[in-house]
Amino acid sequence: MVTTDHDRDATITPMEFDEISVEDYMRTDVETVATDAWVTDVVDRLKEGSQYNGVPVVDEDDHLLGFVGAIDLLEVYGDVHVNEVMTRELIVVRPGMSVKNAARVIFRTGHQFLPVVDEDDRLLGMFSNGDAVRSQIERTTPSKVQSTRELLERTHDIDIEVSERDVAISELMPTQRSVYADELEGRKYELENGLAEPLIVVSYGYETLLVDGHHRALAAERAGIDRMHAYVLTVPREEVAELGLRKMARLDGLRSLDDVEIDDYVQHPLIERTDPDARETEAE
Q: Which residues form the CBS domain (predicted)?
């Protein structure tokens, strides 16, 4: 199992991942408005780019009273208060609900996001379809970490500790020579929407080798992101004189992400094209 310092040496089992709850993935930094706010103020907020294309309406104790979205503001003119146009009947979820069940509610109701409230209907956060996707993506990471860990332990006959922390993008040493341009765009979207998997890196003395996540790391670098969350496998330098990953990186001339080549999408092995020249030759 993968042991993390984040969980105080607790192991993450498949069953625990099946039981992850909404509170583990909901967003708590949610903008709200009061019932006596002016609609014009909400319109200004939406123009600035609201994450949920609207804002929850709460009282002074954060009790959820309604939601005012772009659709509620259509053809609304003049000095109008939020309580006159907000939607009052809302579908909500509880923080202890499983992510799996919350995703089912989202799918069946056609909503893109749902308010998360406690037993007193106080707003705790928002849970979106993106958060549901993110939870499923991150479930795949521990199995990747475990397989990488087992490979290194078998190869070098050592025990490897695994921890979770943020790592500096500028300090990563790549172990992959090239990435694909189109996949970089996909990773950029994931980063912008909080859907990116954590990186997997190996800490080897003063060096941090990037094992999994080259597209994500390069996309982060391009976006000006300084640090990313990662699973860190620590290999003691005093126990392993020559780390295979480090040797490969050195032979390939890889010292930083600047050394990674970016291939055009047409060179991707999954892109198959017909050969018109071959057809002409057959016809002759």
A: 26-84, 86-143
